[in-house]
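Lecture 7, part 2: worked example. A protein chain together with adenine.
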Amino acid sequence: MAIEDVIVAIAMEAEAKPFIDHLGLKKDESFFPPHTPFVAFTGTHNQCKVTVVFNGKDTVYNTGVDNVGTVPASIATFLALNKMTSEAPDKEHLLINAGTCGGFKRKGAEIGDVFLTTAVANHDRRIPIPDFVPLGIGKLETVNATKMAEAFSYKTGVCTTGNSLDKTEKDDELMLANDASVKDMEAAAIAWSCKLHNVPFLGVKVVTDIVDGGVPTQDEFLENLQSASKSLQGALPKVLDYVCGKTHSEL
Ligand code: ADE
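Predicted complex, written out as structure tokens:
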């Protein structure tokens, strides 16, 4: 069946807004429960219903910054997927998680590169009890988008997720074991919500910093955030045009 209902989940408002404006989407005030910080914009594009969701601003710790990390991402996408699949159970759905990431130079990543995920896993969920290890790592295959990657000359690879922008030596060990090409703070959590709803997941990640490059992540991230966001804004409309109306096996 052809994909006709797409959620685009983005953690940071500044990354979501240009795409929302580009598509001319309208804010849906009743999409999320009113006590949540999450925000949804909806509309149609070609044959597809498109819903862009972002995680809103923090009001719990009074910082006012974007709600980054796995907890807001998994809850916002769970609510969105629950609504999407119950309102249109017969439609073919896809969730695209778009945003910035760190890239590994050992896997060929460079600043500004667009990566499509092949799988996701966690690198900060260490549970050294044998039966729990696979749950902690939480590795999930994602949509096979090799044809799209070839069509647009995007790179592909595993996205490893953790709740920190920087990393520890232990993270390094687990990110290597995950065979990660890119590192983010949401993908594995969102893919978990997708799995519960049987909705395919695709990560579209743009590199702001090189994880194995020796420069402090926060400095490189802030330096490249604007140019990487431009790269994301170039990629997202192309990805949406490509997936709408295609079957999953055509991606
Ligand atoms: N987003 C952008 N760069 C990142 C990094 N190095 N780790 C996690 N999330 C990121």
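The radius of gyration is 17 Å. Residues 3-250 form a domain with the Rossmann fold fold (CATH 3.40.50.1580). Keep this in mind for problem set question 3.
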